[in-house]
Amino acid sequence: MRVLIVNKFLYPNGGSETYIFGLGDALKKHGHAVQYFGMEHEGRCVGNAVGAYTADMDFHNAGVLQKLGYSFKTIYSKEARDKIRLVLDDFKPDVVHLNNFNYQLTPSVILEVVKWRKDTGRACRIIYTAHDYQLLCPNHMFNNPRTHSNCEKCIGGQYLNCVRGRCIHGSVIKSMMGAIEAWFWRRKGTYKYIDSIICCSEFMKSRMDTNTVFASKTVAKHNFIEPYDRCSDNGNKTNNSPYGKYVLYFGRFSWEKGVRTLIEACKNLPDINFVFAGTGEYSKEIDSLPNAQNVGFKSGEELNSLIGNAEFSVCPSECYENCPFSVMESQDRLTPVLGAKIGGIPELIEEGKTGWLFESGSVQSLTEAISRLWNDTESVAECRSNLVNLRRPDTDEYSRWYEDTFGAKLKG
Asked: Within this chain, do residues 275 and 360 fall inside the same structural domain, yes or no?
């Protein structure tokens, strides 16, 4: 197969990029040709043979006039159509695999793929991996950051609710532009051209299926993870951590990740040691906790060591998580996870066997769960032992599934 992977960012930026780089490498390893299309950026690490990319759109550092120009480009992009056409004509893909494309690339790229298929008579499937809820919700997350609450009012195309709630950065204007963008493409019917939608959790599939255009096209498939090279001791803790015995949180320090709730639980548990690894809006609050250490952003072997030596990790999200890598990375390093009962998190945790669940957003439920597990070393050890036999798909397995699922349909 010849696969063109489309994503607005072509440099390491988050979970979507981890996914596209891992999938692309695995497909190439299996003999498929892979190229990428997205925005130009100084950090870009993948690309296409003709060097065609859209101009970088930096919403955070743009001036007033530049932001005004961006407002229209976030709805429809002639540049994206022109540039992707150059790649299509040169690469002639069998599959165009969309990922995060709204705002910077826009669904305009779908229209150009459809036009290219018609002009050339080539059979090219359009696949989309839903990393968030961007096809259903203008702010992509089914939440209102301003009120710190989840919300599904826009399901069914009721996008005026986004403006009423100021759901995008608390701004009426930005929320209005987001609502117009969502309405425009829904009205145009562009998403009907997507042939298959990969949902990284059953929860996400259930939400995508609320749209009758998508319902017959969705398939639930958890994300892959590269297996951690465990030591010969079956991943037992090395007990050489400078932090002693601790509970670990790693990730973004933001409200939707449940960090505010976790901070309150920490205050209720002064005798329990916590380690936070990451950055974000609650850094100062974490620094002020006498029983917590903020070690900042960690990656590579430093993060592996932090995860592997933790008593257990906590995934306290309050947003509709889909298939969080933090849960899978902990489990792969034989560290049990205490996860919030929300979104796709419960799909990754078997209660009492590979981890535990608590009521999302409840300080009391989280406090009680941490206290119980901290003092129940036998249950934690049992979970750690059970995780030895738990396997998630790696990139090779995912690539084979991808080929079997979409390659066969292509041949048909």
From this structure: yes
Residue ranges making up the domain that contains 314 = 247-389
Which residue(s) pair with 198 in the sheet?
Answer: 129, 219
Lowest mean pLDDT among 11-15, 130-134, 239-243: 239-243
Residue at 255 is within a domain: yes
> Is the separation of the CB atoms in 177 and 170 below 8 Å?
no
Q: Do 256 and 356 have their domain in common?
A: yes
Best CA proximity match to 223, nearest among 20, 404, 1:
20
Residue 344: name the closest of 165, 206, 241 by CA: 206
* AA identity, residue 42: E
The CA-to-CA distance between both ends of the chain, in Å, stands at 14
Token pair belonging to 221 = 């498939």
Query: Residues 61, 73: contact at Cβ < 8 Å?
Result: no
- Do 199 and 282 fall within a single domain? no
> Do 383 and 335 lie in a common domain?
yes
Position 377 confidence tier, pLDDT thresholds 50, 70, 90: very high
- Number of structural domains in the chain: 2
Count of other CB atoms within 10 angstroms of residue 193: 14
Q: What are phi and psi of 30, to 5 degrees?
A: -90, 10
Q: What is the pLDDT of residues 73-122, one digit of tens each?
A: 789 999 999 999 999 999 999 999 999 998 889 999 999 999 999 999 99
Domain harbouring 51, CATH code: 3.40.50.2000
| Side chain identity at residue 23, one-letter code | L
Task: Answer whether 0.85 is exceeded by the pTM.
Answer: yes
Domain identity same for 204 and 58: yes
* CB 249 within 8 Å of CB 313: yes
